[in-house]
Amino acid sequence: MEYNNLYIEEENQIATITIDRPKKLNALNKATIAELHEAFKELEADKETKVIIITGSGEKAFVAGADISEFADFSEKEGGKLASKGQELLFDFVANLSTPVIAAVNGFALGGGLELAMACHFRVASDNARMGLPEVSLGVIPGYGGTQRLPELVGKGKAMELIMTAGMLDAQKALDCGLVNYVVPQEELLPLCEKLAGKISNNSSVAIKQAIKAVNAGYSYDKDGYAVEIDAFGACFGTNDFKEGTSAFLEKRKANFPGS
User: CB of 205 within 8 A of CB of 197?
Assistant: First the structure.
């Protein structure tokens, strides 16, 4: 598929999606959300893709927010549909992807941009990154999962403060409160993400899929995370990856996982 608002680069079983709307600081509009859905769907179906990295073009912004001009005159019903469709197409879709997704936060990640980063499985930030959910300053609240995922990552009290003040965190403060895993200079951002992706890709993609499912279940109101873990653990025993992993360990060699 051809994309107008992003591009994909693939190397060593790692796919990098770059949101490319530099004049809008990579802000998310409907078209970009739709393209991101298709890009993630395409890469999820590609068995050669072991890890996905997502970042923004340029050095100023990962995603500076949603494109406010698209919904400034929406009704209550239209606003609800906007949030519902966005979560379905992109934010929940990414969070539940079985292929690991790393957010390379290379500048501003505000509003929908931070919500996208939080939907990823973990985050690495450049030292110039700034993160926040400023929606209440516009008379609205985060609608793409921000009120749920931010407390999961930084705790309820800190999330309440950030949402209610519409404040921003610099990269170091984001690291200190657990919002991001690492902070590095801009030029080291993608190399570190690629290094982490390389470590992930050496492991069993089948086991990683089950681990993502089990961890996510622990944050779902309608699932028993421990029960999901037990089922996922048991399922691993029926895979070729388990046979290969245990055989390699006993034979003192490096595993060559078939991914099945």
Answer: no
Within 10 A of 38 (CB to CB), how many other CB atoms are there? 13
Q: Is 115 a catalytic residue?
A: yes
CB within 8 Å of 168: residues ≥ 6 apart:
110, 130, 131, 132, 134
Q: Catalytic: which of 35, 115, 152, 244? A: 115
pTM for this predicted structure: 0.96
Residue 150 to residues 153, 161, 172, 238, Cα–Cα distance (Å) = 5, 11, 17, 36
Residue 59 known to be catalytic: no
Identify whether the C-beta of residue 152 lies closer than 8 Å to the C-beta of residue 217: no
Task: Dig out the tokens for 150 from the structure.
Answer: 């931010």
Q: Which residues pair with 118 in a beta bridge?
A: none
Cα–chain-centroid distance for residue 16? 12
**Catalytic residue of the set 135, 161, 187, 188:** 135
List helix spans (H) across the chain.
30-45, 76-86, 92-95, 112-119, 146-154, 156-165, 171-176, 186-201, 205-217, 225-236, 240-250
φ, ψ of residue 87 to 5 degrees: the values are -65, -40
Average pLDDT of span 1-21: 96
Cβ burial, residue 160 (10 Å; 0-12/13-18/19+) = middle
Query: Token pair of 79, please?
Result: 């606003």
Contact status, residue 183 vs residue 125, Cβ threshold 8 Å: yes
pLDDT in tens, 237-256: 999 999 999 999 999 999 99
